User: Fold this.
Amino acid sequence: MLPFESEQSVETSATAAESIHYCLENLVKQNISTDAWEWLSQKASSVRQGDNKELNLAFAAIPRKTGKAPVRVPDTGLDNMNGLGQHFVINRWTVDRLSRIWLLMQVPKDNRQEYVKGIEALFSAAEMNELAALYASLPFLSYPEQWRTRCAEGIRSNIGFVLEAIICFNPYPADQLDEKAWNQLVLKAFFTEKPVNEVIGLDERSNQELANTLCDYAHERWAAGRQVNPFLWRCVAPFINAENFADIRRVAASENPVDREAAALTCYNSKYKPAQELLENMNELKQLIERGDLSWETVAQKVYV
Assistant:
């Protein structure tokens, strides 16, 4: 038990894990054929007995048995997934990824050393699609602190498909990465033009060091005559100060209306007095924000089309 965990919190976590397992299992059953489920169930039974060889073989074979169709999620299909956070998204997965993650949840957890050994073996031998499934599985794996290095390593990947599995709608990085690794994830999202609005925990994990680095990044792009993603300023908003306020004023004066909207939202979420005064000069945009007609979600719809 961790020092800050009570027996009740550990019990609650266990209950949440059971609910998530139940939910995933139902989704697997609903998305694959009866024959595929029978095959997967048999493999899962062997995996629960600690058969790592069967785990490796089944993990690789799953797409041939289940297919790769997009997961169909009923309206009530995620009711028991609350343990992963309200922004968690599963309906962009394929059935082979869903099945692989469910299979990983069958690995015995009582022996930490054996558990980690089995999962690490999969990482070491994985091809691209398998690797993406493994990174998407991080929120579901036991011993979450064990996978921080793996996650940080994945952020350095140049494979877009793998990066998306880590960056987009994955609650693990925000929950587990230290500030340095988290900042690298956000920067990589901007560098590789991933949808930053899909980074879970973007607001909660914002920090001064990240804001400073993003401002430097903006300066480099401006100097090269390139555009700056308006979402960058979302991470800067809580840390506007005398040093970077000129950047916000520049964005507010942009000819691009989406830039101006981003500047207004940035000022709206800042406690820096000059930023609040600048927002008063963007009265129309301020009113849109206050009515709920302008938000980072509406900006995302224009940036990530």
Notes: The chain has a mean pLDDT of 91.
